């Protein structure tokens, strides 16, 4: 077996950052991922329950003839945004409150500025008010902490997001930990993660990417209880919370990481696979049990001279091979990615509901 190199395909915020070499004809990319559920459930998700029936019914036990069902993250994310729009309007009409999301941007990175603009646009599209603080690259950590503190105390702000990466002279964890747990819409606060890990405890928020993965399974009516699930990757942002969420859904969970022996054999036993390692096409069709359901979180650039930018995006799973074996699979792009901001918007609305005791 060829050696594997696992990388964390997400940063410690909602965005996942990929540094690519321009000499190879590639560039710097980032992919945002997100979260949902407005009614608190036993698995710690708070989400709008759609009155519509599930998008599809998929079985992880048997492989139907033909290609795998494509789990359309774009369609699900749009459905979620439409639901949020209705609920935000209802809140405004009922109690006069508009949910607010604050983003703190430090420095002048063009990619970070782009993602902040995209989040603002997404907020506007569903009626959520957006707040933004832009600080210079050479700002002190104390200045950033003052901005965090100000938003913590601002009753019109219900969610706070610190755009990463931060300048190297700042203590990232110190700043992230300063965000009030009740406004930690990224779900990264140690208390939220700790509550997620404990039976009988409920986190206020769940990290966006893994929550989006589980939401896709729910929206496609894919059973989790009693299934064998394999999570490839153990990052604090995706792998670890994804495994915890699957466990809360009564799956039997195995985590594969860079020190795991015989990962192919373990993966071949899985009914559900969630991969988040940032390794292009690492999981081949031969790794997959016929009829398995695949959620591919990875987003990796590979050189492609026929593409306008000189590269194309692929997942951790070899889609061409896996789609012939699996019963359902997320595409890259267009699978998990679009769920990110939808989940972030959902968490912001959930926070506003909780703070204002809105039913």
Task: Characterise the protein shown here.
It is built from 10 helices and 15 strands. With 359 residues, the chain is α/β, with parallel strands linked by helices. It has a 6-stranded parallel sheet with strand order 5-15-12-11-9-10. Strands 7-6-8 form a 3-stranded parallel sheet, sandwiched between helices. Strands 1-2 form a two-stranded antiparallel ribbon. A hairpin with a 7-residue loop joins strand 13 (300-303) and strand 14. Helix 6 (208-219) crosses helix 7 (239-248). It starts with 14 loop residues before the first strand and ends with a helix. This is Bifunctional protein FolD 4, chloroplastic-like. Residues 71-186 form the Tetrahydrofolate dehydrogenase/cyclohydrolase catalytic domain.
Element-level helix/strand string: EEEEEHEHEHEHHHEHEHEEEEHEH
Poorly predicted regions: 10-45, 49-53, 57-64
Oligomer: single chain
Our Rg estimate from Cα atoms comes to 20 Å
Q: From the helix content, strand content and strand pairing, which structural class follows?
A: alpha/beta
Biggest pleated-sheet summary? 6 strands, parallel
Number of strands: 15
Neighbour order of strands in the largest sheet: 5-15-12-11-9-10
Mean pLDDT, rounded to whole units?
A: 86
Strand fraction band? 15-25%
> What percentage of residues falls in helices of 4 or more residues?
25-40%
Note the overall shape.
Answer: globular
Number of H- or I-type helical stretches = 10
Cα distance spanning the termini: 54 Å
Keywords: Hydrolase, Multifunctional enzyme, NADP, One-carbon metabolism, Oxidoreductase
Pfam families: THF_DHG_CYH (PF00763), THF_DHG_CYH_C (PF02882)
Protein name: Bifunctional protein FolD 4, chloroplastic-like
Organism: Camelina sativa
